[in-house]
Amino acid sequence: MIVNKTSELMGARRLKIADLVRGAEISRTAANGLYHATGTQLDLTVLDRVCRFLKVQPGDLFKYVPEEVGQ
């Protein structure tokens, strides 16, 4: 399973969703989906803009957690 850590990163930097929308120049819908981890897809252009704005790598926004087999 892939865990979205965007809200943790933004919280540590005291950024709001509105800051992400303005700074990364993405839609509020995309920012909400990313922040609340409700989206099922992420456009690579949005990911690029968010990484550039936050000055991070894509791997800093997401974490892979292996699921237990048989659950």
Describe the 3D structure.
By secondary structure, the chain is mostly helical. The protein has a single domain, classed as lambda repressor-like DNA-binding domains (434 Repressor (Amino-terminal Domain)). Helix content is 55%, strand content 8%. The protein has a two-stranded antiparallel sheet with strand order 1-2. The longest helix is centred in the last third of the chain and has 11 residues, at 44-54. It is globular, with a radius of gyration of 13 Å. The mean pLDDT is 93.
Short description, anyone?
The chain is mainly α and 71 residues long. The chain has five helices and two strands, in the order βαααααβ. The protein has helices spanning 6-12, 17-24, 28-36, 44-54, 58-61; strands at 2-4, 62-64.
Tags for this entry?
mainly alpha, single chain, 5 helices, 434 Repressor (Amino-terminal Domain), 71 residues
Low-confidence stretches: none
**Mass-distribution shape:** globular
Q: How far is the N terminus from the C terminus?
A: 13 Å
Count the DSSP helices: 5
CATH architecture designation: Orthogonal Bundle
Radius of gyration, whole Å: 13 Å
Number of domain modules: 1
**Multimerization state:** single chain
Largest sheet: 2 strands, antiparallel
CATH superfamily: lambda repressor-like DNA-binding domains
CATH topology: 434 Repressor (Amino-terminal Domain)
Beta-strand residue fraction: 5-15%
Order of H and E elements: EHHHHHE
